[in-house]
Amino acid sequence: MASDRFEKNPIHFLQYLALKGVCICVRLLPYRWAINVCQALMTPVRWVMHKRFARMQQDIARAFPEKSPQEVRQIAADSWRNMGTIMAEFIQLSAMRADEVKKRCRIVGIEKLRHAQGTTGSIIHIGHFTNWEAFGLVASAYGFEKAVLAQRIDNPYVDQEINRMRNVFSGVTLYSNHQDKPFFTCMRWLKQKKFLGILFDQNAVAGEMWFSFLGRTAAFAPITALLAIKRQVPVFPVNVTREKDGTLTCTVYDPLLPPTEYSLTSVRQFTKVLIGYYEKWLRENPSSWLWAHNRWKRENEGNAYLEKHPEERL
Fold first, then answer.
1. Residues with Cβ < 8 Å from 5, sequence gap 6 or more?
2. Of 14, 51, 195, 212, which has the most beta carbons under 10 Å away?
3. How far lies 249's CA from each of 22, 169, 246, 284, in Å?
4. How many domains does the chain have?
5. Model confidence pLDDT, tens digit, residues 118-130
């Protein structure tokens, strides 16, 4: 049953109209112009949300104590500007034909996905790097049947429009925060030997496990490891990078095979392996990550828990 949080109201509709207006304006511009305009628009937004930008710098400084204040600020500024780039790319790509999307995005290692499609299915292990939405679009453009596990947006009009754009070629969205028993919904999807994309580098609000992430305690949802072990499906790490000419490159890494037997220990160990990929990508290109998200929101709670349960530290 839907909660009051997701019920429609007049403000929601006005926000939806604003989104539609922005999309129309962005799509009227040439691709490169659209990106430049959206990047420029992020500067005044940063001034308005100065507290969040300050917190981003604090998080970056703690993650990279060897970097100077100038380097920290530059990483934060580049990460903030990347949000404008993501917006422009997503709006433009979702209005293109499949062949046009393939010219703007490429998949390195696509043969790995083709082998898994219809054979085992798999989980796509992807994070908030560069432009994660682009991978979903180009994967659909190549004919892969996929679902994404996402958090529902409070505004139902906006949520519906974002999902329409996200799944313009094919695909469905499963909700982690507004769906009855999302774990079993995901299990049924994987049973059909299809692809399921999960971004689990967000702060977990329930069902968490505590791990060190960039030297600080963070809450991670164990759903990727749980699903992989229960269904015995491979997990493909996918990292998205942007070339100098603006081309988005989605690199599919070799599949990670889950432990064959289920236990809390195996879930924790496999989750730790998955976190390692995020840390590696982040250290290689820190400005590509979405630092605006408060990844360590529950750090104190996690530290208190691990003080009482030191055996769970990995």
1. 154
2. 195
3. 26, 19, 9, 15
4. 1
5. 888 899 999 999 9
282 contacts 214 by C-beta, under 8 angstroms = yes
Please answer whether residues 148 and 136 qualify as being in contact, where contact means their C-beta atoms are separated by less than 8 angstroms: yes
Tokens of 89: 């790319």
pLDDT at 2: 47
Contacts of 291 (CB under 8 A, 6+ apart): 56, 59, 60, 75, 76, 79, 80
Residues 274 and 1: their CA atoms lie apart, in Å, by 33
Whole-number pLDDT of residue 107: 98
Which residues, in sequence order, are CB contacts of 19 under 8 Å at separation 6+?
Answer: 158, 161
* Structure token pair of residue 218: 């963070």
With contact defined as beta carbons under 8 Å apart, do 113 and 195 qualify? yes
Distance CA(272)–CA(279), nearest Å, equals 11
Q: Which residues are CB-neighbours of 17 under 8 A, at least 6 positions away?
A: none
Report the candidate in 178, 218, 183 with the shortest Cα–Cα distance to residue 63.
218
Task: Render 65-104 in DSSP notation, one character per residue.
Answer: TTS-HHHHHHHHHHHHHHHHHHHHHHHHHTTS-HHHHHHH
d(CA 56, CA 73): 9
Question: The tokens of 56 are what?
Answer: 């981003």
Domain that holds residue 261: 4-312
For residue 276, give both structure tokens.
């390692």
Enumerate residues 6+ apart whose C-beta is below 8 A from 58.
none
> Token pair for residue 15?
């926000």
